[in-house]
Amino acid sequence: MKKNHFWLIAMVLAGKGLSAQNAQKDSLKVHQLDEVVVSDSKFELKRENSGKTVIKITAEELKQKQGMTVAEIINTKSGMEITGSRGRDGDVLGVYVRGGRGKQVLVVIDGVRVSDPSTFSQEYDLRLLSPSNIESIEIIKGAASTLYGTNAATAVINITTKKSSQKQISGSFETSVGTNQTSDDQNYNLGSISNAVNVNGTLNKFNYAVDFSNRYKNGLSAAVTPENEEDVFSHYSTNVRLGYQITKDFEVSVYGNQTKYSTEYDATNADADNLGKSEQQRAGLFSSFNYGKGSVHVNTAFTDYETNSSDTWGESTTKGKNWVLDLYNKYVFAEQWHTILGVNYIKDEAAFSNNAEFTIVDPYANVVYISDFGLNLNLGGRLNNHSEYGNHVVYNVNPSFVFKTSEGYVKLLGSYAASYITPNLTQLFGAYGSNPDLEPEENRTIEGGLEFRANDKLLLSAIYFDRNEKNTIGYDSNFTSINLADEIDANGVEVEASWFPVEVVSINANYTFTERKGDNAIRIPKHKANLSLGYQLAEKTNFVLSYAYTGVRFDTDFMSYTDVALDPFSLVSFYASHDLIQNKLRLFLNAENLLNEDFTEIIGFTTRGRNFRLGLSLNL
Questions:
Q1: Residue 248, Cβ neighbours under 10 Å: how many?
Q2: Do 94 and 83 touch, CB atoms closer than 8 A?
Q3: Residues linked to residue 572 through DSSP beta bridges, in sequence order
Q4: Which of 261, 356, 464, 477 has its CA 20 to 30 A from that of 170?
Q5: Parallel/antiparallel/unpaired status of strands 337-351 and 206-217
Q6: pLDDT digits (tens, 9 = 90+) for 424-458
Q7: pTM of the full predicted structure?
Q8: Mean pLDDT of all residues in 161-183
């Protein structure tokens, strides 16, 4: 598409918003200040009764970030840094939370942990996620192994998918097209296409949901090269869920997922025909039974992973399988004591020269006390039983106190929590440098801070964290995996603010300071900030202007094997939407890196310049 044609379409879209009738204006609140949070206790609790500052990405916020990937959305939140999310879609993503690594972040989808046991870090590949079928995302930062087990050391990303409508049949469709270009090559050719369709409903006691999504990206080279040879990324995802309400108190749902993506890639500072393919197939069951003041829950799933690569070094395939069962009982005593007693089972398998596997069986307990005088207390413990290294205990102590005010509350909170990261199958049984005598990595996190809420218009929070890592798995002089004697310390501050000064204006901001000591803290910015300003021009027209600052951080230059300080950068983005039919048909424009900033995210790899995306969404 020619440059002038693209700008013409953008002007038409903006004109529709400006000419919309100035009817009664609804609030543009992306975050509900009195929201309910679940992730830190598995109970639906008011935010003021939670001992954590849980980040909740609502359905409305996801709508305002249409066209963005899940990694891009999460990257705007405090304490979160996902390198690769600003580059070519399909690049390998590095997840760094509170100065940690990807293996210390656990992803949970509809109550089931997901992780690929065939990878070296055992982390979940965020490229497999599709935002089109997500209802909400909760992020709980800090050690959470008492409730979620291994890998929940710096954060748990808890994803809830969309539920079935109460109508007999309901559906949605979303499509968008856009540019995909660097700051140096502003050709405005269309190189980005995404589509999503969903059909769902309820027939008496039976409910169903089927969705499909795909996205295609072209126009960028993975590596920075003079030729800028285009590397293609394509992604397909299908989900099916069937549920039945057996009685008023007993329901069962089964679901299946298949996700595939393929990505062309380059070695650093080299242009070659390299192709990677990844496929995930998951089937699961969810069941709950309510009785009196309690309920029994079963979440179980089987996931099969396969990754293939073909490049200048040859062809390789990795395969992994993962079984998960989480059985727990929730019970409320005297309206104040919220208790959980459960057991978690995991079996991981991977194919090396021989098949390798391990099992984990963890009983756990958690209790939340909510007093009528302001004190809240979250306590928990887990006994980790691993088939290879034996037993390990983790625990959590999380008190908070709420002072009511005439307009809201002030909450003081603190926590001391332990977590662990199980050595993965590659480290235990892989072909190179494996060591079956490895112990789990251990993390300890101390937090303290406050949260202030006033009049449903202002929410402020500030948290200090201090995290210690020991038994970190590294290598000896023979490149054999060992538990290192040296410890790593990370500390910092996270500040968040949501302000609604008038009914049609919203301001959301966050700032993170992070310092890591004990090793080379590559790709972790010491300072990071995000700011978004939302404005509801009319009942059907919204604008959001966003600013993101990423400070100095280090990255390794593999040409010289030295760590290099990367310059800070700032990105400005803009989103506009207009409902042609209220809550039915929406047009949107998404513009990223408006100032066309030229920056480096990972040495030798491409980043995106100014890009535009136009789309529409239809709800039936």
A1: 8
A2: yes
A3: 547
A4: 261
A5: unpaired
A6: 999 999 888 899 999 999 999 999 999 999 988 99
A7: 0.91
A8: 94
Do residues 448 and 418 touch, judged by C-beta distance below 8 A? no
Separation between Cα atoms, residue 121 and residue 109, nearest integer Å: 19
Name the residue with tokens 């029994």.
Answer: 296
- The reported pLDDT for the residue numbered 40 is 81
Our CA dihedral for 108, 145, 492, 510, rounded to 10 degrees, sits at 30
Size (the chain), residues = 620
Residues 6+ apart with CB under 8 A from 296: 288, 289, 327, 328, 329, 330
Q: At residue 246, what is the residue type?
A: I
Residue 405 amino acid letter:
T
Query: In the chain, what is the straight-line distance between the N-terminal and C-terminal CA atoms, in Å?
Result: 31
Q: What is the C-alpha to C-alpha distance for residues 138 and 179, in angstroms, rounded to an integer?
A: 30
Q: Which residues pair with 351 in a beta bridge?
A: 355
pLDDT band at 20 (very low <50, low <70, confident <90, very high): very low
Are the C-beta atoms of residues 370 and 380 closer than 8 Å to each other? no
Residue for token pair 């951080």? 553
Q: Which two tokens stand for residue 243?
A: 């549920």
DSSP secondary structure, 148-178, as one string: H-TT-SSEEEEEEEPPPPSSSSEEEEEEEEE
How far is it, in rounded angstroms, from Cα 316 to Cα 299? Answer: 33
Q: Are 43 and 52 in contact (CB under 8 A)?
A: no
Contact 478, 432 (CB under 8 A): no
* CA angle centred on 186, ends 180 and 188, rounded to 5°: 60
Q: How far is CA 443 from the centre of its chain?
A: 21
Who's near 112: CB < 8 A, 6+ residues apart?
A: 284, 299, 300, 301, 324, 326
CB 71 within 8 A of CB 60: no
Angstrom distance (rounded) from CA 135 to CA 283: 19
Cα–Cα–Cα angle for 264, 192, 126, rounded to 5 degrees: 60
